[in-house]
GPI mannosyltransferase 1 (Hebeloma cylindrosporum), 423 residues
Amino acid sequence: MFLDSSSFSFRNVLVISTLLRVILIVYSEWHDARSVVKYTDVDYRVFSDAAYFLQHPAPAEGNHAQGPLKELPYKRETYRYTPLLALLLVPNSWFHPSFGKYIFALCDLVNGILIYRLLKTEVDGLQTERLATIYSAVHLLNPLVFSISTRGSSESVLSLFVLLTLYASLKRRWDTAAILLGISTHWKIYPVIYGVSCLGVIGGSASDAKNSREYLRTIVNWKTIRFTAISAGTFLLLGASCYAIWGYPFLYESYLYHLHRLDHRHNFSPYFYLTYLTYPTLSGTPEALPLWNQILRSPLTSFVPQMGLALGLGLLFGRRKEDLVFAWFVQTVVFVVFNKVCTSQYFLWYLLLLPLLLPRLSITRSKAILYGAVWFGTQALWLSEAYKLEFLGQNVFFALWLRGLIYIVGNCWVLAGLMDAYT
């Protein structure tokens, strides 16, 4: 299954990746017990508390369950995820506090195995296994990937669902892919954008379409309707089941909250500064503003360029199975860059697909170094200013916003370069 016993093999990369994650999780327990500044992400405490409330129901002020069961993960303030995540982490309270971290790290490793297997089927040539090992190591040994999962972020679980969806799609197991896409979208809503590019592949090539009507038939036909129905049905079935048990709090915290979310904290998003400046007005007396002003300041407005680009690019590039990875990567990058809230954690959404895309990029070493320097450099430029705000308390909101715009321009330039290098 894996490579031989040579020094550079996938087996060895996997073993090193496993040991690295185990060591970091053990270290996190030692560090957190002795330091005020914790290694563990605050979200992990939120997950753990929500899992605890599932087992120990208690009255929740202003947020009661409305279903037949009274166990309420949403009693934990700021828990805005599917209750399935809390169910997954139930052993945190009775088995081991770091149980969830090991689950997240395991998902990281499974993701690496899936990437390796996909690369072996996609990369041709005598060095297929070696190349697959190199590219899969880009994921398994990525410091951003293993640090985020060992700190207690659940992104690796969603990444697993996304990769399984991609795996099934590339194998043309469309019913399975539809079910997995529904599960992915239930877990977190953004994978819904991948459905558009899947429809383009399922419907067949549009190159033979002579007019708009024939083109439309490649998007809307029995195969695409079946895929949509299965995917949407899976999403609705999971949602209806959770609603029947936990009621409106599930619906609001998991989905509705994110539609009107106002996050004025500093992040890479170009919208954060406007939200910061208008936050008291928006939360206080939005009815006093003119309608056009309310529309411009509405958090829903940010969805227009974001979803327009993500869905449009999916339709444009998602026409062949061979281009599906490229289409998903481009869709994810623009979705993250133009999201109304953008943090480093979201970078994992498109970095997950990068190892699968690299073999299809025809790019010189100098350009690769330049793109990497711009990607890292724009973040470093932003972080240097964010440090003044976060740790020194300086009023640098405007300067930070300007650097955020530089980050967006830089990322778009890098994306354009990668699109041009795609073969």
